[in-house]
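Why does this matter for the project? Reviewers at the last site visit asked to see concrete outputs rather than summary tables. In response, this paragraph embeds two records directly. Each consists of the residue sequence and, immediately after it, the corresponding structure tokens. Nothing has been edited or filtered.
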Amino acid sequence: MRRTKRLGALLIALVMLFTMIPFTTAGAASLSGNIVLVMNSDEFTVNGTKTKIDAQGSKPVQEKGYTMLPLRAILEATGGTLTYDGATQKITIVRGGDTVVLTLNSKTAVVNGANRTLGAAPYAVNGRTMVHIRTLELFGMKVDWNSSNNNVTVNYVEPTKIFNLTLQNGMGTAYTSVQIAPMTTGTPDWSGNLLGADTLSINQNLIVQAPITGTGFYQLRCGYASSGQTMYHTISNINLTGMTDRATILMNNATAPGVSLDGASATSRNIQLYIVNNTGKTLTQLYCKLSTEQYYDQNKNLLNSQLLSNKGTATTTINHDNAKPYYDFFALCSDGTTEHYTNVTIATATTQQNFATVTLSANGTASSGGTSSGTSTGDTEITFRNNSGKRIYELRASTSSGDSSIKNGTVVWSDSDGVKDGSTVTFKMDLKDTYRWYFGAYDSKKATGNPDYSSGVNFKASGVTSARLTLTTEDDGYELCDYGKSDCDGCYDEDLGSSAASDRHAELKKDYGSEITTKKYDEMGESSTGKKDRKHYEEQEGDATFELSQIKTDGSKTNTSGNDGEIDLNLVAYYDDIKAFYVISRDDYRDSSMSDPDDFEDAYEDLLSGTLDKGESELIDDALEGGTNYVAWVVGKKLYKGSLSVDDDATWVSALNKSSNSLDYNDSENEKVLVLLENDGAGSGCTVKMTNDTHSTETVSVSNNSFSYIWLTIKKDADWTFDVSGTSYSFSREEIDLDEYDGFVHATFTERRFEFDKADD
């Protein structure tokens, strides 16, 4: 379960010193509206129109030397919304892309997740919240008090809206920052970085969220590193007139970039092209040209000097022009023959398509995600059901596991209104003849960073025409916080010293337990004692899973390679790179009478999403069935046959290529965890000593910049301590509970530190 550490007491004290920093957003326009209030009057004037503040007769007043204003009326007049939670006494205000949370009778406000200190605490009168005059500055407003006539003037800008912008970098430079501002005669407001921590590489497509004040003409300032300094390219005249929630910007011209609005593709754009080789041969070279062009460019081999085996895939980037949609391909094969494909349509002009698939078959027949010169594979219709408990605004998909891969994957669906819990939406997706996909979901309109929920699914067949994809989250309940004021709200509120906090938590653990269910948490009650006890517990984020159901296919070849089970496989490249990995049950292997490895590769699916470099691992979901003996083919420096045996009740299997011709493995029933030890610069001849608190000891030597591995036994309530020693240093790592790692852990150490990563991190 994931936990978020709280600010220490000292840091909290420092934060309290800062008061009321006005909040502004990127590309903010000049103040465009105003509200005038008169002290002790139940009327106010909004942009020249006088009206009642509200039905309750709320009035601005002086309270204990502070000017207090009615919050709801002002916020709603300026385009914001306000909700109140009576149980927590919290007021949540959303305006444009900003969220501010206030608490009655508290001077602490939370602005987009950051704490701010108010001049005076908000309070309620007749069911209406009154706030200090300077609180409105949290929303970028300018507030003036005129003591001569008792007037308060609130100047504000129209609220920003979050737009999804797809940036397609055709400028030939990788950018570390991209900023946006309106095309104005004054100095642009270059605030904010649309990329966040990401980099916009050459020919890359990246979807970002841009808070801007309206449509019209904008400009981008793109930062890049040059000779140790940050330099900028400015792209001007980006016409976003008429955009409602999203646009695509092809950054290929400093003054006339390609722009498309609300899902229509830019006239010319760079797209990722996935190439599937179904020719029955190995391709050594592959070239592409527009059908209107006469010659192929011999300097642009799409395979980049790599071989593309039959049933294999490759990825490249090409520039697509809607006005010239037809392409020709020419392939050289390892047997000396050639394949020629003409008038292949890659992408359509009516959808926002940042990737496409071309399947090359024998005898010059090709198909793609759009119409083609051969038989079209068609799109797969996905019905997504949201059972997460929250509103979902965006879905992304990747053929690789891990949140970082999903974050940089393809946006398959997004909507500024989102889909609420319990509802469904339908979209179309190109599966590209790939069975295993990893999906991520975002529960925020600002879909940045890693997804809020992610997991993998297995379509288990090719030619899928439709399927239902359901996102479900589990309630992990509540966990007792670490005691102390820096980690526990309860200890902080009760002002407990270290000794008293330790005793308090020991009592809570005895009375309730360190981990409790939501039901037990609620049973503590709303009494003062119950509320105090509950503040020492923190809600845990439940696990999220995507599940497939109602899969329909077009009757083409199903996936019989074995990865249609319920047991995950942790595969590690230890001896050398693993280029492909195939499994088949031993019974099916006997029946197949296959002796030629090439026959095996043609008939079954490669379980890997790509080549595993030495020292890398991949977690393959649902790869195996329990109680089954398998034959495995490993393609490394050479192709060899191994074996895998899975117990009936296993939940995972870990395996690695032990040598040039052998596979080493264990499953969960054998209670062995595979630990890959990587020496990342800790000198030669280092020794890692691993000690279990039941006094079991294992020792492994790992030379500099190399790997070793060991199988460590899982024992209940028994953790392992890792000690590293070299010629001039030694250090120890805290105890590690291997039961949390589901079969595999990658342990990397230097002369000063040890880091542990799971296979799916």
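We now turn to the second protein, recorded in exactly the same manner.
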Amino acid sequence: MAFDGITIANLVHELSGALAGGRISKIAQPEKDELLITIKNNRENYRLQISASASLPLIYLTGKNKTSPLTAPNFCMLLRKHIGSARILSVTQPGLERIIEFKLEHLDEMGDVCRKRLIVEIMGKHSNIIFCREDGVILDSIKHVSANMSSVREVLPGREYFIPQTISKADPLTVAEADFMSLMKSSPMPLQKAIYSRLTGISPIMSQELCHLASLDGDRSAGDCTEPELIHLYHTLRLLMEDVSQGRFSPAIVYEGDTPVEYAAFPLTCFEGSGYSRKDYASISALLEDFYASRDALTRIRQKSADLRRIVQTALEREYKKYDLQAKQLKDTEKREKYRVYGELLNTYGYELAGGEKSFSCLNYYTNEEITIPLDPQLTARENAQKHFDKYNKLKRTYEALSQLTQETRREIDHLESISSSLDIAQTESDLVQIKEELMEYGYVKKRRAGDKAPKITSRPFHYRSSDGYDIYVGKNNYQNEELTFKLASGNDWWFHAKGIPGSHVILKVQGQDEVPDRAFEEAGALAAYYSKGRDNDKVEVDYIQKKHIKKPAGTAPGFVIYHTNYSLVASPSCSLQEV
């Protein structure tokens, strides 16, 4: 899964055809490292999403919009000032580098024609969006890179833009046969690795594909290949590069079952065989959106929930330590009954003591066995009995207090684990808002100051429809779980929850029917397993019961319920239903 130079070449071919000659109508910066640019061309609107995220850099055309912050960041404001209505002259790629350059034309404050360059570098953690003058002087970038951060190149206003050459690689579009042969023969690496290590813009998966097309073993040492084999490999590379130069792309995703495993700008014949299938795309943008959109959303939401996750994890670790200490102290109180028996036996047989003994053996009438009682020789029999009774009473009080405390700590752990589970399934910022509200209510996050306006809650439970047409609702957090179970669900609706582990409440609406198909129960159970901490397991046991049998103890945290005489099923975690 590589955003390599060949994928970039496919994108440049597509963007050039769609955007060249178009005019920018809107520039937004929904994330600190992301731009969303709207371009009007040929009476159509195109949205170009550009992300310089270190974890998932992307660029593609999309039909989806994103909410922008109320105050635009400085970089966005600068772009709006200079190129807010600029015309796109061209979209190019230098060689087979992972770089896309947009040449733009606009009018300055005096009405004179000016040209600018917007350069997008898709280079993993070094990805960036750089805005330059026509002569290459950097005006600004979405990420500033100082000399302290990189010894190779500074990316700061006023610096000269250049492409860093940290590793000397040949351009596969122009490399001569003799040079290619020399590069391969001099490499001690496996052939597959030698290709992507010595040529620009070739990813490991495309190296594997080239070896497969040339019928060569990619794990074999490049230096051991014969001259005819390397000539054949070079001609295979030339045919591929000819397709790249001519824009003859056939983007496709390879699936293993339902899971996407690889994609490329050309069909990956090395994956042909049992267990793999292929989905072809007319547009590389559509492919990238399908492949990365959900992953990008998940990455973003995990970044935004990092602070909440840290708060919950810290609180959980503290509660776990507290619970372990309380459990250990509770175990120590198990010997309390021994001291009560000592005291009672001393009151019964104490008259036999002469005084000064360190221990006393007598018959334990509870077990009919002989028992030895430790004594303080300086105390009388009655005083020794009272001493043992005092120990018993102290341990008894400790046991009663700790029994309640351990239950409270266990409930707090369950509550925090349920919040952690909610963070795992959060998909949008509005989902995080409700979770943060709950953390505020229970004192884990500082409450907002008096007069501060509470954020608007727009998050709603998941809503699915079963194969038989029954509505199924899934809570995203404890507040939603509470609302689903005690407000949305009626008495005969069915309630589902993963057994013994944190997870969402799932409600199967029966629409007043007495008979519900087994398939609806199986699908609701699969959702309950999927939206729980057990979603990575092969099988999860799920409890289900009619809502009228669910009770909520007074004073408990939201989403906490009790029930008896429930049914159980074993489900494979799955979310195969379409959300309504």
